[in-house]
Amino acid sequence: MRKGFDVAIEIAATRNNGGVVAIRLARWERPRLYVYSFDEPLRAWVRMDQKGAPMIGRRTPGWWGRLSSVGVLVALVSCAGRPGSDGDVSEIDEPGSLSGKLAIYIADYADGASETRYFLRMPSGEERRLVFQEHPTVDPGAKVRVWGAETADALAVSRFQVISGSTDGIGSQSSALIKPPPQAPRIFCSVLVTINNGAVPSTLGIAQTETQFHVGPTSVNAYYVENSYGRNSIGGKTYGPFNFNMSGCSTDRLSDTIRPMVPDPCDQYGFVMVPEVSGCGWAGLGEVGTATEPATDTWYNGTLGCVATVQEPGHNFGMNHSSSINCGTGVPFADDLSSCRHSEYGDRFDTMGSGCRHMNVWQKQYQGWFGGCNAVKVNASGTFYLLPIEQACDGIQSLQIPFPNGKTRPFPQGKTDNTSTTMTTYYLEYRTSLGFDKPVTTPQVLLHAAPNPVTGGSKAAPHTWIINTSGTSTNPGLIAGRSFKDPAGGLTITVTALDAQKATIQVDYPGGTGAASTCVDGTALTPPGPTTCAGAVGLDGGVILPGDSGVIGSGGSGGTSGSRDGGRDTGSGGSSGSVFDATGSGTSTGAGGSVGGSTIGSGTSGSAGAAGSGRNQAKASDLEGGCDCRIAAGASSGGKDRRALLLALALLGSVISRRRRA
Residue 176 and residue 398: Cα distance in Å, rounded? Predict the structure, then answer.
């Protein structure tokens, strides 16, 4: 009996110009056949086996030998004829398995509920729903092979294998961010779409859309310029209005229909749907990629609010929601998190949560906006100067303090998607009233807990959780004289002082000493660190100076003269600081004058009030929350590999066929 392997390739035409390749690897005496799908094949060519795997019926040796040479040409046409597709999985499916790229959809509803759905994305772009027994820890776009049983509308996955995933490279800048080199703007095309010929509200027209995304002082462009310290910006313009007849909430069909109407090339699209579509229960919908491979599409359901319009592109860039954790009254954090509650949008100090504020330091490091010693991992007791995150600085803006003794804390209640919820580290940041953080009227040090940082954005970002250290939701951070202790002991963090330039942080580990603290660029830090900042970066590339740089307000007027019981009225407040430039104005008023004298009938005037401190800030929009996030399979550049594989297999099949006939 002859031993060896037999190879066959079949190319079948499909409804949308794709192809199906049947590859047979079999011993002579026991032939078997596997299918590699480039697209959904015609049913005349394909049947399903009992386990749901697509199979092609067994053919005679002469059949596949005659087709192999023709298959080369058809395969090459099929591979090259789908620009913009996700590519393929070059490995051959095993019996009963399917291969493709993992796509993930996260739906967030107004009542706080969240639903995650997983799909296997075929090279044609078509998707097949997968049902896992628990959330798989797999990055979006990873190539996977799955086994399972068919249900009415999905494949119930019994096991899966990651064929390849994204690289685990960690990138960083080598210098701090006083004057970071700007990158080329990403072209963001905002598109106004009328639904079913509905009327365009006066607040959601072309001009308003262009202002919110591109040109306004609090636009999405202004937000990313300020948050990235001038590194990232959004270009492009607004198009439309274009009409789309929608039933239900068919956003995919909308984008496929409207995108060709935009005459210019775009890196990203934002579809503003007007009027609001009741069939879509969200304010914004975002396709989630990574910082290194951003996704392209976002949708806005009758809104141009700050949180929705900033958060959805943030999902394109790979950022996850900024959440909060509640471990009970008077318990800011717990050693065992099993009884703590998760709030998906609970971080009010972050646009990836529910407030139009600066993104937290985990998000900023993930995007690569920190360099030099802007982020520092603390390994020993010491005193550190923590600088405001709103400004471009050459010092510490993020202190990363690992849980003592290498402890990790799983938080299964926060598992709403495929990312890790095992916390390892505390993150400290100093918030002041500047730029988009204008509503932060009380300077404070915010404390977050999260998994290890991922610099450079090569993987999907996990959630972060703000810890309420004060017991009040409006000002949850630490102020001067306040401390936080790890619930298991072994670590105390104290804010010893606050001023306009910095927060002074004392970190105490047991034993006092340890390895040197290290910067994000890998260098060692000698505490406490520098204190130089240039100010927040404005829309025009200039800087929004720190909060004490505006023209100060005048003093309060004197108290009124006393009457029968003496002068009791305080002076009025001083005027606000004068406008420094077009981006904002002063906000603080002077203190009231002192109480007048107590002489009966002739109280003296009170003293003048203290001068008000000027501010130069952009106005932030109102809060709003709720979005729908879709994690997309990343693009692939494997077209050449696919063609080479098919060519080799087809030639091998042809050679073996001729040998057998001989």
Answer: 13
Q: How far is CA 472 from CA 329, 432, 477, 624, in A?
A: 11, 17, 9, 20
406 φ/ψ angles, rounded to the nearest 5 degrees: 65, 20
Q: How far apart are CA 222 and CA 539, in angstroms?
A: 5
Which amino acid belongs to residue 33?
L
Tokens of 570: 């305080």
- Rounded to 10°, the helix 306-316/220-227 angle is 60
SS3 129: strand
Q: How far apart are the C-alpha atoms of 145 and 469, rounded to whole Å?
A: 45
Q: Is 503 helix (H, G, I), strand (E, B) or coil?
A: strand
Quick one: CA torsion of 605, 610, 615, 619, rounded to 10 degrees?
-50
Distance CA 62, CA 64 (A): 6
Strands across the sheet containing 533-537: 392-393, 533-537, 543-544
Measured at the CA of 449, the angle between CA 443 and CA 453, to 5 degrees, comes to 105
**What is the spatial distance between Cα 150 and Cα 148, in angstroms, rounded to a whole number?**
7
b/e map 433-469, b = 16+ CB within 10 Å: bbbbbbbbeebbbbbbbbbebbbbbbbbbbbbbbbbb
Side-chain half-sphere CA neighbours of 643 within 13 A: 12
Is the pTM higher than 0.70? The answer reads: no
Q: What is the mean pLDDT of each run of 10 residues along the chain (662 residues)?
A: 37 36 36 35 33 36 37 33 37 68 66 66 78 72 83 83 56 50 93 97 97 96 95 96 95 94 97 95 87 91 93 92 94 96 94 95 93 91 95 93 94 85 96 94 97 79 95 94 96 96 93 77 89 79 57 40 34 35 36 39 43 36 48 44 47 49 48
Rounded to a whole number of angstroms, the distance between the first and last alpha carbons of the chain is 17
Half-sphere exposure of 199 (CA within 13 A, CB side): 3
Beta carbons of 307 and 354 less than 8 angstroms apart: yes
Walk me through the domains of the chain, giving residue ranges and CATH numbers: 6-93+638-661 (no CATH), 97-164 (2.40.50), 186-318+625-631 (3.40.390), 370-402+412-537 (no CATH), 551-559+572-591+603-612 (no CATH)
Strands (DSSP E) along 479-583, which ranges? 483-485, 492-498, 503-508, 518-519, 533-537, 543-544
